[in-house]
Amino acid sequence: MSKNNQSRSGLGTVQRDFGPSSSLPPPKSSQEIPWPPTPPAAPAQPTRVLSASEKRLKQIQDALAGYSKPEPSLAPVTAAAPLRNSTTTNKRPSPTGESSADVPLPKRTKRILPPDWHHNDALSRSSGFTTSSKSSSSIGQTSSTTSTVSTAPASKGKLPTIFLSQEQTQILRLVQEGDSVFYTGSAGTGKSVLLREIIKTLRKKFVKTPDAIAITASTGIAACNIGGVTIHSFAGIGLGIESPKDLATKIRKNKKAATRWCRTKVLIIDEVSMVDGDLFDKLAAIACDIRKNPAPFGGIQLIVTGDFFQLPPVTKGSAQVKFAFEAEQWRTCVKHTFNLTKVFRQSDQTFVDMLNEMRFGNLSQKSISAFRSLSRNVEYDDGIGPTELFPRREDVERSNSTRMSRLTTEQLIYMSIDAGSIQDPIQKEKMLANFMAPQRLVLRVDAQVMLIKNMDEMLVNGSMGRVMRFVDPSVYGTELDRDGAGDVSVVGASKQIANVGSGAKKASASVAKPKLYPVVEFILPHGGKRRALIMPDIWKVELPSGEIQVSRTQLPLILSWAMSIHKSQGQTLDRVKVDLGKVFEKGQAYVALSRATSLEGLQVLHFDPSKVQAHPKVIAWSKTLSTIADNS
């Protein structure tokens, strides 16, 4: 942050919605001039005029007065002091940012703020930052040919403008024209960014009939990442082991499922690599049967995406894997197939080439030597270590617990508020487990955490940081906040937290809402630091009809010393550590290593070329793919 910046309160950036019960005073239509007129008027009783920052502060304090929360469970734990590795390491310099003070965060969309808070000074001052951060918008900015698909002004506090490459723009155009499309690409080619833009475009197209769009994915985690449901849940087929005819009969008995099939005009399937080929054929047959339409997939437009070189479908026993592209109805139902080639996640062409060799399971001796050289330790002067990726969840929990136990700082426990229409406790628990946000989040000062939601152009899903302190949000950034730096930056506060739905009120009665929330100092990708007060946010699984099957309200943070390879799929991580001696599935090594943005931020232990495998069927099929250039 520039040293010449004047001190400021930043209260105009607080992202809180207090609801109708906490009305704020209306703005004054005029303001007294804070200096005497010329010529001087008759002496009058001097009055002190509040500055704009002071008025905002008063408004926040008045509103927060009605936002009471019980005290959290405080359970300081005594443990041994943190251990430090004394072995020889490669040290990387700490980021060059001058200040780690609490920097104002642009307010997010759909917030109800006092009417005189029109000017968002946080973004107008953002030019004072000496560093930039990587976000989903930066993907297209490196492309030689880009297309602006969202022009919402940043001053409104929205996420940054997204730029699509020429490849992505062509696919979006086909989707807008109503064609069925499958697109793939290696890790980091912008598949997820494009899918979000496709969903946004389709929602505008079907704004009057939102249930015409069915957003699904092969797994619960992938579905949650795009705000959808699993393909099994949408289809109403349970495990889907019966014949297409029996499944169609089953669906007709489920009025909600049958209605979904009949009203759907566009079906999105993400992470199709984990969809079994037989299941794809069953879905195609069911669509024709239920909709009484012999057209491919019952006349539904398909938007399918995923990378078959990543995690494959789950099979039982020794059964042979059958990919979706092997389905009999694949070519009939998917009109266009494209392969994205522009890589955005990694800018180092050497690293890109190494990952491409790994993707095809055909490593050169040069790449093998390069990967083996990454076994060195990498430490960072800012105290934030790499995220270690494990294939099994038990290893993740063990690693995070071990690191947490080394801290002797105060501990706070945050329990989520879960709600939704699903009544079956087993099904509900299974669906909630797909959220990145945990049910029970234990935090301590100095705990290493990761942000799991995009907040603005600097703080994005995957941003790494460290808990600095815990604070009452009603005094954060005020003169009462003795440990604060004065500026206010709030992440996650939302009106939805107060009322998540009918089930939330029951849950909130038994779950204590902590009064203290964490202030996290985040490390920006290209240097510099940024602090923010983290408030709860909401995750939900919503059907096309608008029914919320499950929802979870929790802080948008997870411990980031360790993470599962499965949950890391789709993530971009600047600091990664992987032990390849523990991987056991085809595609796991590629998924894990391709999360890294650079060789400098990647540590690889026990590199074994035999662990790098690609399925022969996928390799053969990939040779049939076309690119946008091939079709232009």
UniProtKB/TrEMBL annotation:
A Gene Ontology cellular-component term: mitochondrion
Residues that span the membrane, as ranges: none
DNA-binding residue intervals: 588-607
GO biological process: DNA recombination; DNA repair; telomere maintenance
Family according to the record: Belongs to the helicase family. PIF1 subfamily.
Function: DNA-dependent ATPase and 5'-3' DNA helicase required for the maintenance of both mitochondrial and nuclear genome stability.
Name of the protein this chain belongs to: ATP-dependent DNA helicase PIF1
Lineage start: Eukaryota, Fungi, Dikarya, Basidiomycota, Agaricomycotina
